[in-house]
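tokens incoming
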């Protein structure tokens, strides 16, 4: 079919792409996954611990400003790690209500957290 590319065009494109792939592979650094600097530290630094504590206090303060029903679902979802369905079962409310409360709480938390963090 004269409207399609010729065989030589296809071969040239394939060869070009292979060459690009080889070039990219050579450019990658060969990092040792066991390099001590690449491994996460076992314990956070004192500064990191203080920062996380301050950040946690700010977030909890913002959550405390939410209506009680929204505080409850946020706490169950993020503090206790429950799924939306588990929250619905525990509170005896529809799954859609859990999702709505979480969405509404995020809409309220977003501007509060932007100011604080």
């Amino acid at each position: 079919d004269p409207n399609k590319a010729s065989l030589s065009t296809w071969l040239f494109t394939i060869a070009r792409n292979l060459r690009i792939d080889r070039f990219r592979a050579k450019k990658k650094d060969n990092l040792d996954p066991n390099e001590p600097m690449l491994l996460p530290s076992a314990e956070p630094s004192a500064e990191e611990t203080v920062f996380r504590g301050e950040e946690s206090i700010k977030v909890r303060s913002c959550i405390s400003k939410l209506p009680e029903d929204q505080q409850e679902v946020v706490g169950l979802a993020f503090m206790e790690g429950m799924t939306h369905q588990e929250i619905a079962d525990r509170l005896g409310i529809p799954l859609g209500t859990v999702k709505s409360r979480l969405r509404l709480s995020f809409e309220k938390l977003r501007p509060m957290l932007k100011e604080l963090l």
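note: The radius of gyration is 26 Å.
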